[in-house]
Amino acid sequence: MTKSPVLILGARSDIGKATAHAFAALGHPVQLAARNADTLKADQSDMVLRHNVAVSLHEFDVLDLATHAAFVDGLPEMPDVAICVVGLMGEQSQNEQDLDAAVRVMRSNYEGPAHILAEFANRFEVRGSGTLVGVSSVAGERGRATNYVYGSAKAGFSAFLSGLRNRLAGKGVHVVTVLPGFVETKMTEGMDLPAPLTTTPDHVAQALVDAVERKVNIIYIKRTWRYIMMIIRAIPESIFKTRKI
Description:
The chain is of the alpha/beta class and 245 residues long. The chain has helices spanning 14-24, 41-51, 68-73, 92-97, 99-127, 148-168, 201-214, 224-234, 237-240, and strands spanning 6-9, 30-34, 55-59, 81-84, 130-135, 173-179, 182-183, 198-199, 218-220.
């Protein structure tokens, strides 16, 4: 049985590549979308040889909203699963002083991802089938001084995914929100990450595949994060604002 294609938006990221391999290993054709997509030719060849599936490259800029509709309509085949793993953390200290940098972080983590998934949502709804996946972050569950610019954008993205899931329920389209926590990637390189709370791109990818197959709504890659964030959300604001968490 021929399997339907899976689209990875942000395919150059470590999580994006791992997710592409995970779906390709199951026999799904893969569409890799990223800026300067031609630089992914080596990854394309590797996936084709390793998994014996079709792998195509597609130029995509999440911040160029005006091109999104044409990007979707220009795909050789509409995917059954569209996964957005686009993200930009930036440096909180820089974001506080350089507001243009802050806006780029906000747009990269919320506006762009929400806009492109909205394009797919409308087409999937008309078709009556499909799965949308957004990789958000536990950082969006409460604003903290150490990363509130990034966290605020992820909070918006999580809320968008929740509303999209509510809107599309019963219309054949499922929406998955992925909350990874700390992941060992290029984006977190050099950070002192606590080992018990840190995962790998491969682990995220396998959990994401499972969530798509089982139609899970929200997935914390490490379950511990669910309870940690439950506690953090419960701290009264009068106390929370005086702490550095």
